[in-house]
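User: Hey, quick favor. My workstation is busy. Could you predict this chain's structure for me?
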Amino acid sequence: MPEKVVITGAGFFGLNAALKLAAKGYEVELLDKEKQHEYTPGLIDIFRDRVSSQKLELNLEEFLEDTSVKFSDEKVTGFIPEEDRVETDSSAYNYDYLVLGLGGEPNTFGTDIGKVETCYRLSDAKRIDQRLEESESALVIGSGYVGLEVASELREKGLEVEVLDVATRPMVNANIGASEIALDYMNENDIVFRGDKNVETVERHSAILENGGKVEADIVIWTTGIQASKLVQRDFETVKNGLEVNKGLCSQKYSNVFAAGDCADLDVMKTAHNAMNQAETIAKNIEKGEAENLEGFEEKFPAILISMGEDGMLEYGEKAYRSKWFRKLKDLVRIRYYYILRKKKLKLKLLSLFR
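Assistant: No problem, here it is.
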């Protein structure tokens, strides 16, 4: 009887890991509370109808129905690693191996953001898109790549846009070149950037700063980054950065638990490209079975494509470049991604015929 792998989360990492491990002959159970796999790098494209929302989602039941991957749309409610068990809102699953791919949650830094918007899921983007019809101004809190993309797209749509950040420069976690490109773009397009501003509280139409100042807008969007799933933090007693893993993405404490993406404490970019490669690494390491022989994950292409309205930026290692072609390239990456998924599915189906 094949060993059972339970994968929690059907994002870029989880879905690709499921297809890869099933192709290797494992019994794979994929759990996600949503029935749709979302192409999150394209969320902002629905604000100006560049891409329809249907092109940013994949129905998991339909996509996996004729494969050996078992998909259940259940919400994971807890992990009991000492008993090799995952609990959901309607069942429980035992496993030989557990793969953590629940992704992340907005990092609020202790601020109550319940009254403002976020832009990390398709449902978020759709809700923002509806509010834009009655909005003339926007306040974006956070100037990382999500904040920059959201601010740029809203400015292209005609809104007055202001960006607040506790950092003194945008894209503070990127290299200096990327920060300079981002700031130049903002200045050229009348996007107001205000750094060294610590937000204390937020309301539906405003933000109160630590020094007592107040910034108002028709819509407020929180984009200050991501922390690991709080379930993972709670049940594996880990930090906001995610589960502590070794070079092979295996838990330092539990030899049959693997993690990647936002759930793993790794000093690499949290990109879809890296998540897919991490799925490959974990599939190989589960097959190896011996902790001392694990293959180490290496970031093959330390780059990220960032949309800036009709323009684009490529951050690659310690360099950054600006070109309209990078915006077009980002569209091609989405098309190629769905092609890769379908190719992996076809390979899985062909392999199943010979087992």
